Amino acid sequence: MSDDHTTPADWCLHPRLKADSFPIFDHGRLQFRLINDRRFVWTLIVPMHPGAEQLHRLPPDWRNEALAGLQALSETLEYLYHPDRLNTGAIGNLVDQLHLHCVVRFGDDPAWPGVVWGAGEREPMKPIELLARIQPIAAGLGDALARNSERTA
Amino acid sequence: MSDDHTTPADWCLHPRLKADSFPIFDHGRLQFRLINDRRFVWTLIVPMHPGAEQLHRLPPDWRNEALAGLQALSETLEYLYHPDRLNTGAIGNLVDQLHLHCVVRFGDDPAWPGVVWGAGEREPMKPIELLARIQPIAAGLGDALARNSERTA
C-alpha cells in the first residue's frame, strides 16, 4: 500500500522515456526499461507514481521499493556483464518524470571515463538485438527480485 | 554494527577526493563533503568502509545508512537552495572509492541541462566562501539526520 493511496493506474510513462527505451518488465510499482543504444547496456527504473519527480520526495514505501529494485537490477547486471563499474543515478534535467539510471560501464566503452549522459549520439538497435539484450536481463532480474524479497521476508 | 565487522578505523579517504573536497562533517559511518567548485553546490557522501567501491556491494546495513544519509542531505539541500533539480548518483569511473554525489542544479547554471561530471573547469573557492557554504549545510544536515532518525526509531 502506498502512503498516499496513489496507484500506478493513474500513471503514464513520459513520452520521451517511451521513445528512447523499451520495457524489460513491470514488477510491483516499478517499470524496468532498456535504453535503445547499442553502445551501452543502459537500464532505467521508473516508479509508476503519478507526479513523482525526485527520489527524495517519493513516499518512503515507494522509495524503498525503487531502491530495492535498483539493488536487484545492479546485482543482475553485475552477474551478466561483469562490468568495470556500474554508474547509477537520478538526474532528470531533461525529463522531469522520476527515473533511475543503472548503466554497465567498461574501461574501453565509448564514453569512458566520462558519463553516458550527453555522450555522443545514440545508436539504435535492430529489434532482434534489443530482444537479445532484454531477455537475459528480464530473466536475471526476475530471479534477483524473488531472491532478495525472500531474504527480507 | 557492521555485517562484516569492518569499521571506519581501517578506512582512509582517497587522495583525489581529499584534494577536491572539504569535510562538512562525519556522522555515524558516513563522511559528508563539499566539492570545492564555486559553480555548483556539489556534495558527496563517503561511507567509511575500507575497500568499498560500489553501492550494491556494500553490506546491507552500510548501504541503508548511506541511503538514509542521502535522504537527509537531499532534504537539506532542497530546504536551503530550492533547486530546480537535485542530481544524485554513484559514478566512480575516476575514483574507485565509493562516493555518492548530490548536486544542486538550476536551469541557469553553467552545465544545465547537462550533468556536472566532466563539465568544464572547477572554480576553487576562497576559504571564507567555502566556510560560508559549508556552515548552513552542516547545520541543516545535523537537524535532518536527527529528525529522520527519530521518525524511524
TrEMBL record, chains A, B:
Assigned keywords, A-Z: Methyltransferase, Transferase
Single GO BP term: methylation
UniProt entry tagged with the keyword Methyltransferase: yes
InterPro entries registered for this protein in UniProt: HIT-like, HIT-like_sf, HIT_Hint
EC number annotated for this UniProt entry: 2.1.1.-
Sequence ranges assigned to domain HIT in this UniProt record: 43-112
Group of enzyme by EC: transferase
One Pfam family matching this protein: HIT
GO MF assignments: methyltransferase activity
Name the record gives this protein: HIT family protein
